[in-house]
Amino acid sequence: MPLEDGDPARWRGQQVNGEVSCTPWLGGTGEPPPRGTPAPDGSGTEAMAEGWEPGPVLGDGDVTPGGAPQQAGQELGRHEEALMAELSELVQKVVKSSSWWERHGMDISILACSFLLLPAGFLCLRSAQAIPFLAGVLTLGVVHHTLTVKGSHLASHNALTESKSWGKVWAIFFIELCSAFTAEQATYNHVKIHHGYTNVIGLGDSSTWKLPFLNRYIYMFIAPLAVPIITPLVALDLLRNVEWKAALRTLCCMFLGLYCHYWLLLHVSGFQSPWSALLCMLLTRSLLAHPYIHVNIFQHIGLPMFAADRKPKRIHLMSLGVLNLPRNALLDWSFGHSLISCHVEHHLFPGLSDNMCLKIKPIVSQYLKQKKLPYNEDTYISRLRLFLQRYEELMVHAPPITELVGIQ
């Protein structure tokens, strides 16, 4: 099974463009990278993890004082490609030996279970008692985030099926109908930009999640409640970047998804007024908005950042600029392993499903540690404390570009 874009040759360490910010899709401007921006992994300049000893590595165009061409950069580049190829072969063996249930079935069953819970959630909201009503809110909130975050994220990477045609159908369903966003722009911004240019300043550095005019407490604890409102508004603005047929399809899917939710609250859950139904929509759709925003910034911002023309190769770019959080039952179910405890694995092999990312996690972590490469891990509370303490530095001011000499 090919792991990236259906091209088996990319297992051999060739250049990869990468594989949306995660749904409900707030990230990205929809604009292509500026002309002259190097393709992902095209840089010959390397970076060094914290604690590594710098070495006198020169770029491909550098020369020694005597004028002789310096070959160290080229040799280092070939070494990095060999590392990525070796790791890819190890992962490919695991994928080939895995059943369809492991590759896709497990995650599809989670999404299917979420659909089956929808009637129970809407019916619980009919109750005048507090406990059943709150159970309905909790059920619909978890189901909504499972479909819009986990479902949309997997669909954007075509990780739900090995058919690209069905992958397109699922992307439209989960991203546009469930998440009220545009599939083309979501996929482009997340797959091509965020994954292709992870932690590259001005491209894949998660800067679209920054709102410097807000103070730390409003941003971290109050602003996430507005995600269900902001998401479709951002989508409408991005529709000007897609062709009219796609824009019309997106508008129809967005309206259908939002109206169905509203109609079910009125006619199944028994809400008496439009405003109470809309308020319940906002409540359920923002139930897990706080961890959603937090996860998107915790796993990249604060890690090494690079200029577009001075960034490491793929394996170092992802190991340096991506962080894993501990496993959490609620977030694993709603967001998926690839966004929580297997984010490093996901960025290295974005075409794999959540369950497969979890399965290859021991192989990837052991390999990176064996090769003295960074494997970033931290707890949710630790990252929250860090961002509250260093909010001005990390979220208001532009992050400094990592300038490191080389890799030992």
UniProtKB/TrEMBL annotation:
Residues that span the membrane, as ranges: 217-239, 246-268
Record domain Fatty acid desaturase: where: 133-377
Keywords for the protein's UniProt record, in alphabetical order: Fatty acid biosynthesis, Fatty acid metabolism, Lipid biosynthesis, Lipid metabolism, Membrane, Transmembrane, Transmembrane helix
Example of a GO MF term: oxidoreductase activity, acting on paired donors, with oxidation of a pair of donors resulting in the reduction of molecular oxygen to two molecules of water
Any one GO cellular component localisation term in the record: membrane
Residue ranges of the region described as Disordered: 1-75
Record-given protein name: FADS6 desaturase
